[in-house]
Design a protein that fits this description.
single chain; 158 residues; mainly beta; Jelly Rolls; six-stranded antiparallel sheet; three-stranded antiparallel sheet; 2 helices; globular
């Protein structure tokens, strides 16, 4: 549940906590705590050719990407679209989606979720993925469920 933020937050260009998971890094500029649960904002860096996250659904929050660098392919409910620098991608809660960065340039995009918690989910996933050995998909699924996300398989997914 969110309350009302009462303090301004100014984050310098290199500020924010960087978290690596799913082969990507997100530098969280505005966290759940900083916004009193209103939103989360991060700058994601995605390696060239990255397959992106598994196909998933956010049950409690909308997600917005603003593409800064790279050539993205975004899949929503099995339908693929191109998104390059300057593109805005709005993903309402409840829609299965994923993305990948095509070509030989790394991708960079702002990611905003309008209900907090994405930063916590990402940090918990990073901890699980840092364990030795192959990823434990049952653990990752439980982490996702605890944060209102579901991994799904949709037509057209890679």
């Amino acid at each position: 549940m969110s309350s009302t933020a009462t303090a301004a937050v100014i984050v310098p260009p290199n500020g924010g906590r960087a978290v690596k998971a799913f082969g990507n890094e997100i530098q969280f500029k505005l966290t759940s705590e900083a916004t009193a649960g209103a939103l989360v904002l991060g700058l994601a860096t995605i390696p060239a050719g990255s397959a992106g996250p598994p196909m998933h659904v956010h049950d409690h929050e909308d997600e917005l990407f603003i593409i800064v660098e790279g050539d993205y392919r975004v899949c929503v409910e099995g339908n693929w679209s191109e998104a390059g620098p300057g593109s805005v991608v709005f993903l309402p809660r409840g829609l299965a989606h994923t993305f990948h960065v095509a070509g030989d340039r790394a991708g960079k995009h702002w990611v905003l979720t309008n209900a907090a918690g994405f930063d916590r989910f990402y940090a918990h996933s990073a901890e699980a993925l840092a364990q030795p050995g192959a990823p434990d998909f049952a653990v990752l699924g439980a982490i996702a469920a605890a944060h209102g996300y579901r991994y799904v398989r949709a037509a057209g997914a890679v």
